[in-house]
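Good day; I would like, with your permission, to put a structural problem before you. I would ask you to consider whether the tokens describe a fold that such a sequence might reasonably adopt. The full record is reproduced below for your convenience:
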Amino acid sequence: MGDPAEMQLPAGLSSARAGGLSDLIAEITGTRPRALPTLAPALLFADDAVQSRLDMPHASQADILIHDAQSIALDGAFPCDTALAARARRTPKGPLTEFTFTLMNGGSPVASLGTTLRLVPKTDLGAVKPTPFRTGSLTDTEWTGPLTVSQAQTDRYLALSGDANPIHQDVTQAQALGLPAPIVPGLLLLSLIQPAAEAAFPDARLTSLKSRFLAPLCVGDPMRIGLQPRGQSRARAYLIANDDRALAIADLTFQP
């Protein structure tokens, strides 16, 4: 575990960039988030200027880097168009590399993020056949969808995030990994939860999300979002492919 990397983000997160993510969420789900997308601050960390400071793990000819887990917690309203400071720490754990980020405005924290990346053999990505998820066993769950994400929408997200991973755009590379098409970025999938969450908790603000990715979703394939309230301030979101594969599960918290 290395020392924390300190960095300055003079422009911070632009309102245009955050608005672009809101526009994309609205186009895919049919509902625009009423607040800044909770995952918008994560757009900052795919920038080359930030990644160059983080000692990112590198894939080899035999391996590919995938997103394993993501968390975010906001300390109040997130400021756009504002210079921010960031502190990042990298923790290797075998095939996993965990990154934790703290974003600060004037010395006060405004967001905390956690990202876990995993190196997996390329032969494993298309060969894994997740057990179908028994959605019928879930109680008190409201479902949204089916939703699909097109390649054009994926490309717009990649432009917003700076993500250059060819697995999201290159059909040839996707097929070489045993997949029929490029895959939708995990953070874009998680961003689609927000309209359903805001509808279920109309008087509260989504302030944190902690998720684990379980399987990839190919561009153009349908998926559904199930939201299961767990009290006055918590919920669990299930992202499920049309064949009942679980794509991701996220735990959410809300504040008035």
Observations:
- The radius of gyration is 18 Å.
